[in-house]
Amino acid sequence: MIENGDYSRLGATALEGGVNFALYASQADAVELCLFDEAGETTARHFMPAQHNGVWNGFVPGCRPGQRYGYRVHGPWDPVQGLRHNPAKLLLDPYARRLEGRFRWSHALFDYDVSKPDEWIRSDADSAADVPFCVVEDAGTCFLFRRPVVPWSSAVVYEANVRGYTMRHPDIPEEERGRFRGMCNAKILEYLKALGITSLELMPVHTRVDEQFLVEKGLRNFWGYNSIQFFTPEGRLGASDPVGEFREMVNAIHDAGIDVILDVAYNHTAEGNERGPSLSFRGIDNQAYYRLAPGQPQHYINDTGCGNTLNTEDIRAQNLVLDSLRYWHAEMGVDGFRFDLATVLGRSRHGFSKSHALLSRISSDPTLESARLIAEPWDPGPGGYQLGRFPAGWSEWNDKFRDSVRRFWRGDDDQDSEFARRIHGSADLFETSGRTPTASVNLVSAHDGFTLMDTVSYEKRHNQANGEKNRDGHRHNFSCNYGVEGPTDEPEINDLRRRQRLNMLATLLFSQGVPMLLGGDEFGNSQSGNNNAYAQDNETGWLDWTGADADPGFLQSVKDLVHIRHRFPLLRQPRFIHGRMPTDTGWCDIAWLHPDGRPMLARDWNSGRVLALVYSNHPDQKDDSPINHAVAVLFNASKNDVEFELPLDLPEDLDLQFSSDPANHRRNGSGVWSVASRSLVLLASPVEF
Fold this sequence. Notes:
Layout: E1 11-15, E2 18-24, E3 30-36, E4 42-47, E5 50-52, E6 55-61, E7 68-74, E8 77-78, E9 83-84, E10 98-100, E11 133-135, E12 157-160, H1 162-166, H2 180-183, H3 186-195, E13 199-202, E14 206-208, H4 212-216, E15 227-233, H5 242-255, E16 259-264, H6 281-289, E17 292-293, E18 296-300, H7 315-331, E19 336-339, E20 347-348, E21 351-352, H8 357-364, E22 372-375, E23 395-398, H9 399-410, H10 416-423, H11 427-430, E24 440-443, H12 452-455, H13 491-509, E25 514-518, H14 546-550, H15 552-567, E26 581-583, E27 586-593, E28 610-618, E29 629-636, E30 642-645, E31 655-659, E32 665-669, E33 672-675, E34 679-684
Parallel strand pairs: 12-13, 12-25, 13-16, 16-19, 19-22, 22-23, 23-24, 24-25
Antiparallel strand pairs: 1-2, 2-6, 3-4, 3-7, 5-6, 7-11, 8-9, 10-11, 14-15, 17-18, 20-21, 26-27, 27-28, 28-29, 29-34, 30-33, 31-34, 32-33
Helix pairs in contact: 9-10, 9-13, 13-15
C-alpha cells in the first residue's frame, strides 16, 4: 500500500506512521519504489502515486527506518536523444543517507547490450543483485558539534587520506586501520596536536565506485575521486556504521582543537561516459544531472577528464550540491570543503564565471556561512585554469606557489621575483578583487604529484604500477634528484636532500597565506617516485610511519617551523602589506633586501637566487617611528655561502629562530649573518603578540 506523499523533501524521510519517498525524475513516465528485506529479496514494488514538477512522491504506511529500497524509473530509452530510462536497472536514490552492500561489476549494470558496443540495444538484465541498497535513515536527531574556532589567517592545514594515513600506523589496532576510527585514534590526534595542525583536510569519503578497468587489474580507487552518492560515507571506511563512525571521528578531532575540511568531488560521478554503467543519475534524469553535447545529446561533455560533467546549470543539480554541503556541514560536523576541479561548479555553456549561480548560492547560503570554502581552481576543459578568479570568501589551492618554491630552491634561473610574489601571498592574483592573503592556500606538495621526499629524489615519474605504461601523472614536477634517481647511500646527496626539504617547508610556513602540509612530508614519506598513486591502495599509497623514527630530528624541525608560525603574527598577516600599513598591533612594514642590506632594485631581481624579506612592527605611522618587533627571512638558494648585512634600525635583539643548516651559519657581527649555500635562516626579536 502506498499513498500520496510530500514532494518538498527529496529522499526517504521517516515520519510518524511511515516513510515519505520523493525522487526528482522530470522525464519519467513512472517511478517504481522497490523494497527489500535483509536477504535482498523484494518484498514490495510500488508505483509512486503522485508527481509535482518532476518530483515523484509517495508515503508508505508502516515503513520504518532501516528499510532497504531502490528505484526503477520507467520512461523513454533513447540514448541518441540523451534519454536513458530503463526499469531493469535498480537505481540509487541520490538523496539516500545510508547504503548497504557493495557494487559488483557485471553486464547487468549497463542499460545497453555491452556485447554490441557500437549499437544502442537496450539491456533487460536486472541489476538488483549487483548494486547496494539504499536504507531509510532515522529522523529527528539533533546533532551538536563542538567546533574549534581558529582564524583562517592562523590556520595550518594538513592533507590526509583516511585509509592511507592509518593502514601502517604501529599504534592503531588492526580493526581500526583504514577506517574513520583509526583517523581519530588518540595517538593520531596527539601527534597532530603536537605538530601544530589546526585543520585536517580529508581526501574524499563519499561512496565511490572502483573503476572497472582498475578492478580488472586487481587495483582499487584509493584516492576516492569517483563518487556515486554525495550523502553517504564510503562503506570500506567504516566498521559497522560508517555514518555514526564518521560523526564520532569528527567529534574526537574537534575535541583535539582541530577542524575538519572534507575534499568533495561534485564535478562528475562514477557513471562515466555514455557507455558507462547506469547506477543512479543516468537512469533517473540524464538530461538534468549531466552536461550533454549540444546537438549530440548521446555524448557527454567531458570537462573533468572522467567521462562526464555535472550539469551545474540545472537547478536540480545545483540543489543536489547545496543539499549535500548543508548535510555534511550541519549533520555530519564538517567545518569546510575543498572542491575538486572546482571550475566545473562555475561552468556554463559560455565557460567559467565566478558569478555563476551555483558559486553564488554556495557563497551566500546561510547554513554554510561559517564553512571554509577552498577551490581547486582548474579542470581539464577549455579555459579550465582559473587561479585567482573565484569569488570573495573562497580560498584556492595555489599551484603557482608550489612550482615557484620548487624552482627557486632547485636553483632555476630568473625565479627571484616570482618567488617573492608567491611568499608575499600572491597579491597579484587575489588583491585586486578585494581578497586577502588567506585566499591563497599555499602548498609545496599534495596527494596529486610527488611527495616532498620524492621531489628531491626523482626527476622522472615512476608510475608503472598503475598499469598505464607510465603515461599518467604530471610530466613537469620541477623536481631534482641531485645526482641519483631514487634512494642512495651517498651522505652528501642525502644531506642536501634533507636540507632542501627543510628549505621548502620553511618557505611554506614563513609565507603569507594559508599553508597546507601533505601528511607524511614532515617525516620523509615516499611513494617511490609514483606521482599519481590514485589506484595504489597498498604500501605505495599508505604512509610508512617508520620515517618518523628514522630521522626524529627532521620531524622536530617541522614542529619547530609550525610553532614559529604560530608564535609570530608577522608571518601570517590578515591582509596584504605593501609598505607601512595599519594592523591590530600597530603599523607593519615590509622590505625586500639585497644581501648588502639595501632595498632590492630592478636590476637585483632574478640575478642571484638570494634575497631577504623583513617584516617589522612600528608603534605608529611616523617615518621615524622605531621598530619594536621584526622578523627577517634570509633565503640563499645559490651554491655559495652568502653574507647578509641587515639594516641598523632593526632591533638589537634580533636573533636566530631557525636555520635549515644549523651546523653552517654564523653571526659575523652586529647585523651581519653568514648563510650557507642552499639554506634559509629566520631571525626575530623575541617580542610576541
